[in-house]
């Protein structure tokens, strides 16, 4: 009598384990890739200006050109966020390389505290690589008290390198657009229970 059936059974079990392990590794890899996709996409957009993503600068450029560009401002609020959000000026004209400051007015129209953060882009999208922000309210979460009114500033310039890009020779207008999205309020810490000796009373 041979032990072939037993050997076949062990081979089948080992093959099933290998296949299951392979699928498990594939699933874990796909989950990891999904989590990595968002930061990688954000990094790609910030680096290349893809989709009109603006850039971040820490200082003014070294030169200012005589050529001017009109920058228009757009403010939006996503559904469910009880804010009024509008630019104080619809547009300003700046020289390329000139540092400028624009202001938005924000009002929390709710009777409760709200938390939100802005997404942003510029149009035409190909200008994103040249639109440099030095300071912007979009970099941080914004928490507003009930009925609070706030002025928010964005400090920016248009990079002089845009003058070397023949694709934008005829460009005379850029639109900077923001949309605020609601964020969940952070959980409040549970109040600490004061310790002490029992009173002995019922």
Report on this structure.
The protein has one helix spanning 4-48, and strands at 55-56, 68-77, 83-87, 91-95, 100-108, 114-123, 131-136, 142-144, 149-158, 173-183. It has one helix and ten strands, in the order αββββββββββ. The strands form two sheets. It has a five-stranded mixed sheet, with no helix packed on it. The protein is α+β, with helices and mostly antiparallel strands and 202 residues long. Residues 26-52 and 192-202 have low confidence and may be disordered.
Features:
single chain; 202 residues; alpha+beta; Ctag/Cox11 (Pfam 04442); 2 domains; 5-stranded mixed β-sheet; 1 helix; 10 strands; 22% helix; elongated; disordered C terminus
As for the number of domains, it is 2
The CATH C-level name of the largest domain is Mainly Beta
Order of helical and strand elements? HEEEEEEEEEE
CATH fold name of the largest domain = Ctag/Cox11 (Pfam 04442)
Query: Which radius of gyration do the C-alpha atoms yield?
Result: 28 Å
End-to-end separation in angstroms reads 81 Å
Strand order of the largest sheet: 1-7-9-5-3
Number of helices: 1
What structural class results from the helix and strand content? Answer: alpha+beta
| Largest sheet, strands/sense/barrel | 5 strands, mixed
CA-based shape: elongated
The tally of beta strands, per DSSP, is 10
